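Researcher: We're teaching a course module on how sequence relates to structure. For the next exercise, students receive a sequence and then see the predicted structure as tokens, so they can try to spot secondary structure elements on their own. Here is the exercise chain.
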Amino acid sequence: MLITKNVQIRLSSNIKYYLSRGYKGNHNDIIEVKAEDLSKGARNLVEVECEYCGRRKYKPFGDYNNIMNKSLVKKYACNNKECHNQKIRDCNMVKYNMPYPMGTQEYRDKMIKSTRTKYNDVVELFKTKDCSLITTEEEYYNLPAKEDLRLDFTCNKHPEEGVQNIILWNFKAQNNSCKQCQKIAISEWTKLDFEYVKQVFKDNDLILLETEYISTITPMRFICNKHKEKGEQIKIFDSILDGYTCHYCSNERRRGENHYRYYGRENIIETYIRNLLVEWKKKSMLNCNYKCVITGNRFNDIHHLYSFKNILLESLKNLNLPYYVYYNKYTNDQLLEILKECDLLHNKYGLGVCLHREVHSLFHKLYGRHNNTSEQFEEFKIRYKFGEFDRLVL
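Model: And here is the predicted structure for the students to work with:
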């Protein structure tokens, strides 16, 4: 309630306003006006009374006027908690015909509609990514407030994928939300230079028959120089990178002492050295709090931010030793030197990170198993966080 009746003001830039209200005076004159005639943003102090507890205080008229104009109930309440809550109840009675409407369906529907992204804006968002929203407006606003907003849509580029489903937040964050669009984007992102691909085939004594490179998982035709009589062979490029080249060369390499069971798999030099990196593993697990750094759940593997194979090869190079598949090709003294050098390089390149096996496999599927770096992993974490791989992992 406004207690002050009259207020003295100085006429300045507001002179036209007060002259229009019937007051008289010249510029810089001090005149007396009714409190209710003050301009809506006036900073003149007026006395007001709380209509719930009766307390009085001085307040700028503009603030008081703003509160009263916006309020459903034209009663002034002070900052006292009880008065403030009572006014809220009065407003709820006017608006909902009950003092506590939060439990009503009408209130929940109104809150959902007021806080949720407008349906038309969501439709436009899907259009910007060349998709069509299938979920209707009624279905959209009826989705539970406490759950993720899962929406149905179709991709205009890949209608053969049919109706797909995605969380709205993920759709906003991802560049590609359609399953097929994601596969193509990942393929393009990881696409290698064709000249590099040809050189890899040449280094493996293979004649590449393809004229273009699509992705690491696209089958490629080639002929082995050592086994030309066997004709054309087909393998994906990822297999070539992993050393699985000509089928017949692979058979030859697996015979006799080259067979992985000839000495036992545990006798492979990589496995032998990995099993001895106890301290490095302990420190890595402790640093990750014994959890997967991506999901926060249990972990299965410890991922090298810098490729373990590169560390091993660098150790052998520093020691001027050749690379043998099996550790029993080295003397005990050489093995001790290799282990010490690997320990030093592990300290140099830093600790590993704990990962769930599916997450670990996904990383290597995207970035390969050769020459991995910490920059790749940081990029992978960001992509995972923004939901790019929600459909690829559990």
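Model: If you want an answer key for the exercise: The mean pLDDT is 83. The chain has four domains: 6-101, 116-178, 190-253, 266-394.
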